[in-house]
Amino acid sequence: MQPNTAMIFAAGFGTRMGHLTLDRPKPLVPVLGRPMIDHTLDILADANIRSVFVNTHYFADQLEAHLSPYSSVTCIREEPKVLETGGGLKNALPYIGNDPVLTLNCDVLWRGNNPAKQLLKRWNPDEMDGLLLLVKCSSAYGYNGQGDFFLNDGNRLQRKDTAPNAPYVYSGVQIIKTDLLRTIKENHFSISLLWEDMIASDRLFGAVYDGDWIDVGHAEGIGVAEQKCANV
Fold first, then answer.
1. Which structural domain range is residue 104 located in?
2. Pairing between strand 30-31 and 5-9?
3. How do residues 50-95 score in pLDDT, each as one tens digit?
């Protein structure tokens, strides 16, 4: 089944942003003159995703007020504690339902084709339980890590594990089946817990984005984004 629902992870504390998130949630920090979550909503609208869920926690009132004019958006507040990505998605299942869902982080900026559209074109539910959009490390700006994944010839994913580096970084965008979430007893966990089961059963795949990706989840990344986009 082709996903027609998305969830934006937006409940975190934005600690990498430093002073920029002392009085606002990270998704409302401006990038290129607009709150970063607005760029993500544009991507989803262009991909014809009309049902969007956003988890909130840190400065939840501010974010919910900002999103209130969007008729396609439903906010799900996490209280009393933030639940991380896996727990947040599990908590949203009564709203999302049982179908595969597109999930996104909003603290990135894209230069190139619509990343959601690219992933949707590659989704094959017959062989996939999850499909992660990857970025070549050479196309990842504002990023100082060593990569996350290798891809085999069939585009199945293998973690970096103990290797000194890997050629691809996870972009923060994925399509994922939610069935396995119901088997996890914990309420507070990372979505990567699901990935481990999918890797073990050879059902976690990757697709490589064909443009540039900028990590704006930290203050320095915003400067990188402004410089890169000014040079277009």
1. 5-230
2. unpaired
3. 899 999 999 999 999 999 999 999 999 999 999 999 999 999 999 9
